[in-house]
TrEMBL record:
It is an enzyme of class 3 (hydrolase). Residues 19-433 form the Peptidase S9A N-terminal domain. Residues 498-704 form the Peptidase S9 prolyl oligopeptidase catalytic domain. GO terms for biological process: proteolysis. InterPro entries: AB_hydrolase_fold (IPR029058), Pept_S9_AS (IPR002471), Pept_S9A_N (IPR023302), Peptidase_S9_cat (IPR001375), Peptidase_S9A (IPR002470), Prolyl_oligopep/macrocyclase (IPR051167). Its EC number is 3.4.21.26. Belongs to the peptidase S9A family. This is prolyl oligopeptidase. GO terms for molecular function: oligopeptidase activity; serine-type endopeptidase activity. Keywords: Hydrolase, Protease, Serine protease. The keyword Transport does not apply. One of its GO terms (cellular component) is cytosol. The keyword Hydrolase applies.
Length: 731
């Protein structure tokens, strides 16, 4: 039996009906309310029925996608645009610096060390470790002297990092692997013989089902059995607590922060390591029990720099005496600005800096900017000019730990590959320190930031990347969003965005509530009981694109991953008529049971919990799986999931896919693409290209974009799921 599917501007193509899953009669009664769950059986990936259904879904996915137009051209263009590669920020230690660089043709970034004379050597190459490409470099931290390197590797996308330490001089491994290091923090002590690190308790020491939790802070002496590490902090904390550690450059001050899951607040302690042995630091509270995010750093001048959103949702920078670190001793150095969010700072001082300078990074409506201040009194010295032509993003700030007049920062926008720029405090000038290592011919695109009104009148912004500066005719369009965990979507190089626009389409990225683009209040306006604001903002973005003439609803696709997968799941169930197609990747969709799987229990502060009657009503109000209705003409939908995903279980997409296939009357396909040996985060370039080919060709087919048509470039596209693979946040 076949069904005729006719995407806009394409000839019909006969594809088989989707293989149906058996509907069950499971109904949970929660606080007296019946909650049906007809596809509960699909939660078990190893059940024979689930395996058979998944295999049939895979065949059906390929029967629809493998024939789509332009795939070869798209793949070739993706290869070209990914060949630009990337270069990370330098990390200076002991006269040498370290950086992560992905050269053309590399599947992953490689960690290099560059000596004082400019010679460089490879230190860690994931492909040399695993030619299959499934091993990723998750983190790396050089010692203060630069002679040792701690680094973490994981395999198959599971993000279960293992720690290794190597000698930088000859690349020999000193120790490792040390397991249970997922989401660790590492802080070296001077001399490189010991470090503080965060590690989970062994599985046998925790209740069943809680193996991903129960972290502690330890002092580890290099080369010793990690079983003998001394626990210095964390006993008695909630099982879902994360810890961060830091040691000042002079080795005197230890900071320890604790986070309850992904809640937008933390507790913070500071210890003077000169007051006793490092195994028994006396930690004094800086902020405990306050509803704020705070970080501290002891500068070379001996002052405690406090970066906080306490009483300042867009952020402020304070100074204090580290011996009296509490809020009562803070003095504002850089006050909160009313329409810009503080994101980072660098202290440029010492003998090589004729004038001490505090370089501060902000985002103003998601666009990066810099300002220079006098660190003594916070007086504004100037606003350095950033590369012009298109709004961009600043990716971190780096400086010499010994002091100096230079700072390095990443710069990215929609029109060019990312680069590393350098700021010189002596002149106030900015120059290019490193460009992308490869080259590609890039399309000429136009970037606009537009404003629109959401349902409650709130002003929201989005970036529109298009072939023309103003709408000339309705075009196939993709609307991308995230809207959660305080994560901001700033301008960034994206081969997928460029390719879509190059082929004649429009790509829009909405800065929804729930993100961090306008500070912590913006985040909280889209979390917990306010989550519907995020979806309203997305619907209004779609309506704005149509009203402006950029597109029409039968040419508009929605795209999102992770928390953004929840977003587009809500979009397609709440407003199915607005979208012709949806790309929904690694999504949360069953919001009644999300806490039971993966790392879901860590996100209850963001979403709420079904264990509380009022919060269950929040979740049921939008949970996409529970809002699929028979007889509705739903858009074409592509779910993409990854078997190694230890954050968001693929069961969400399986259940939602089955529900939509049963319910939809549109004749448009609902497909499930499952991939093995990758997870929620990093992946090889080859795998990214193939995922992007499948995703963008699917969206093109159902919005009327023809990669082989007149709007295409001679070669044709890329970045992950169109805009990004891993937005983070929901760790």
């Amino acid at each position: 039996m076949t069904r005729s599917v006719q995407p806009a501007e394409h000839a019909p193509h006969e594809i088989p009906l989707a293989p149906a899953a058996a509907r069950g009669d499971t109904v949970d009664v929660l606080f007296g309310r019946p909650v049906p769950d007809p596809y509960r059986a699909l939660e078990d990936p190893d059940a024979p029925a689930t395996r058979a259904w998944s295999a049939a879904q895979d065949e059906w996915f390929h029967s629809h996608v493998d024939h789509l137009a332009g795939r070869d051209r798209l793949r070739a263009r993706l290869d070209e645009l990914f060949a630009t590669g990337s270069t990370g920020l330098p990390c200076w230690r002991g006269g040498r610096h370290f950086l992560l660089r992905r050269d053309p043709g590399r599947e992953h970034g490689v960690l290099f060390v560059v000596e004082a004379d400019g010679s460089e050597r490879e230190l860690v190459d994931p492909i040399a470790i695993d030619p299959g490409g499934t091993t990723t470099l998750d983190q790396w931290v050089p010692s203060d002297e630069g002679d040792r390197l701690a680094y973490l590797l994981s395999t198959g996308g599971d993000e279960e990092s293992r720690l290794y330490v190597l000698d930088v001089a000859d690349g020999t491994r000193i120790e490792g692997p040390i397991d249970r290091m997922r989401d660790t923090s590492i802080a070296w002590l001077p001399g490189g013989e010991a470090c503080y690190l965060v590690r989970r308790l062994p599985p046998e020491a925790v209740p069943e089902g809680e193996e991903q939790h129960h972290r502690r802070v330890y002092l580890h002496r290099i080369g010793t059995d990690p079983a003998d590490d001394v626990e210095v902090f964390g006993a008695g904390a909630d099982p879902g607590t994360y810890f961060g550690v830091g040691v000042s450059r002079d080795g005197r001050w230890l900071s320890v922060s604790s986070f309850s899951g992904t809640a937008p607040r933390n507790d913070l302690w500071l210890a003077d390591l000169r007051a006793g042995p490092p195994e028994r630091p006396v930690l004094r509270p800086v902020t405990v029990g306050l509803d704020a995010l705070t970080g501290v750093r002891v500068g070379r001048d001996g002052r405690l720099y406090v970066f906080t959103d306490l009483d300042a949702p867009r952020g402020r920078l304070c100074v204090a005496d580290p011996a009296a670190p509490g809020p009562e001793g803070w003095r504002d150095l850089i006050a909160e600005e009313p329409d810009a969010v503080l994101t980072g700072f660098a202290i440029l001082d010492g003998p090589q800096a004729p004038r001490p300078t505090l370089l501060v990074a902000r985002t103003r409506h998601a666009v990066g900017e810099l300002a220079a201040y006098d660190p003594a009194d916070g007086r504004l010295l100037g606003r350095p000019s950033l590369p012009g032509g298109s709004p961009g993003s600043i990716g971190g700030l780096a400086e010499h730990p010994e002091g100096g007049h230079e700072a390095w920062f990443g710069w990215s926008d929609y029109t060019a590959p990312s680069a590393v720029l350098r700021y010189d405090a002596r002149t106030g000038a900015i120059d290019t320190w490193a460009t992308a290592p490869g080259t590609a011919t890039l399309p000429d695109v136009h970037v606009r930031q537009e404003t629109y009104r959401s349902a409650d009148g709130t002003t929201v912004r989005m970036f529109v990347i298009a072939p023309t500066a103003e709408p000339d005719r309705p075009r196939p369009a993709v609307l991308y969003g995230y809207g959660g965990f305080g994560i901001s979507l700033g301008p960034a190089y994206s081969a997928g965005v460029l390719a879509w626009v190059e082929a004649g389409g429009v790509y829009a990225i909405a800065n929804l509530r729930g993100g961090g683009e306008e500070g912590e209040q913006w985040h909280r306006a889209g979390m917990r009981g306010h989550k519907q604001h995020v979806f309203d903002d997305f619907h209004a973005a779609a309506e704005h694109l149509v009203a402006r003439g950029w597109t029409t609803s039968d040419r508009l696709a929605a795209s999102g991953g992770s928390n953004g997968g929840l977003l587009v799941g809500a979009a397609l169930t709440q407003r199915p008529e607005l979208y012709a197609a949806v790309a929904c990747s690694m999504p949360l969709l069953d919001m009644v049971r999300y806490e039971r799987f993966g790392l879901g229990r860590l996100w209850s502060d963001e979403y709420g919990t079904a264990d509380v009657a009022e919060e269950l009503l929040w979740l049921l109000g939008y949970s996409p799986y529970h809002h699929v209705r028979p007889g509705v003409a739903y858009p074409a939908v592509l779910f993409t999931v990854f078997d190694g995903d230890s954050r968001v279980d693929p069961l969400h997409a399986r259940k939602m896919c089955a529900a939509l296939q049963h319910a939809s009357t549109s004749g448009r396909p609902v497909l499930l693409r499952a991939e093995a040996e990758v997870g929620h985060a990093a992946r090889s370039v080859t795998r990214t290209v193939e995922l992007t080919v499948d995703t963008l060709s699917f969206l093109a087919a159902h919005t009327g974009l023809d990669p082989d048509g007149p709007g295409s470039a001679p070669a044709g596209l890329g970045h992950g799921l169109g805009y990004g693979i891993d937005e983070g946040g929901d760790r």
